[in-house]
Amino acid sequence: MLFLSLLLVGLSLVGYVSFSMLPAPTAAVAVPAPQAPMDSVLVAARPISTGMLLRAEDLRWEPWPPGRLGDGYMVRGRVAESAYSGAVTRRSFAAGEPIMAGHIVAPGERGFLAAVLSPGSRAVSVAVDAVSATGGLIWPGDRVDLILTQNFESQAGRDLRSRAVGETVLQNLRVIAIDQQLGEAGMAKNGPDGRIPRTVTLEVTARQSETVTVAAAMGKLSLALRSLLSDETVLTTSNVEAASAPTWAEDVSPALRQLPAPHSAEAPAARRPALLIIRGSKTETLER
């Protein structure tokens, strides 16, 4: 009995020591549920005004929770680039605000040109070629000066120093279209056939549209590209600069300024009225 008691006590001690050396049970780690993938929504990268032509730097894609997608949001992968590339805004957008499909007009859609125009302004087209369109470096949204060049060589007796003149008739005009598309006014952007631009559409006031029409009938029109100092300038009468003084041929060529002044031709003697006398088959002119 003593031996069995000692054996039982020894086994108990061995079991206790073995159990105490076992590692403590770890607590169950909660596995987070997988989150639904977030969509990317097209938003304004900076404040955008009404009637502004959208450029790449004006937009960005921002992750958006799927449950917060509203009607009209432009989701990446669900809209084509043509739906927003080169579009014009119908209203203003704050930075970070989603671009709504119903608040922009894509190129080619009905009412696109009317949406581009500022309130109270007009659209007028000017016939150009590759040279008069600044070598194809003009884009919609740029600002240009309109220059009129006239040549008076057909007028007999005209002084050589004043037979040609150029003048800036309008300044700081916004280009809203090149031909019938939004793209560069150069041959490289007009397809493999190498077509040159034929028309440039400008945003003007009602009075300026008449000026452009009259200037087109007077001589050759050319465009001079201006520096785009601000993003979007509202076209008003106050911020359109006044036209500069005309530049005559003698202002350009010093050689013409050195020519002697032409002698004024003597006025022909005034013809005295005559009296025609008819006697039968004979006629006689009588000077008075």
UniProtKB/TrEMBL annotation:
InterPro entries, sorted: Pilus_assmbl_Flp-typ_CpaB, RcpC_dom, SAF
Residues covered by the SAF domain: 39-105
Transmembrane segments: none
UniProt keywords, alphabetically: Plasmid
Protein name: SAF domain-containing protein
Any Pfam family matching the protein: SAF
NCBIfam families linked to this entry: pilus_cpaB
SMART domains from the UniProt entry: SAF
Species of provenance: Azospirillum baldaniorum
